[in-house]
Amino acid sequence: MSPPQPFTPEDRLDAAKRESGIPRIVAVCGSTRFMAEMSEADLRETAAGRIVVKPGCDLKSPHGLWADPGEAEALKVRLDALHRAKIRLADEVLVVGDYIGDSTRAEIAYARSLGRPVRFTHPEVDPEG
Fold first, then answer.
1. Which residue in 117, 94, 90 sits closest to 14, CA to CA?
2. pTM recorded for the entire structure
């Protein structure tokens, strides 16, 4: 008989969320061209009693925080890592929009590698569908 497997950090996080009675957490993913749709998804998921985490910056829209190209590239790397952390935190992922680019495709693969269920506002764009 093999020894019991230690709990992963994700297992411990999931258990702590259940024990604390934290509502289901949904990570919204998708191209930043769908920021308005992401806000609508946020509203609907929140109204349904779920906690929502989603991209907070649209690097395609002008802003002083990413006006410098070098700083913008460094920020993108940090934001990508932050979004992966949001996916790890989440219980499920909701992909918004009728287009899946490389970044969103990678986020979907990452979520699925963690065993997170993935929903789509446009199921026809599911890379596995």
1. 90
2. 0.90
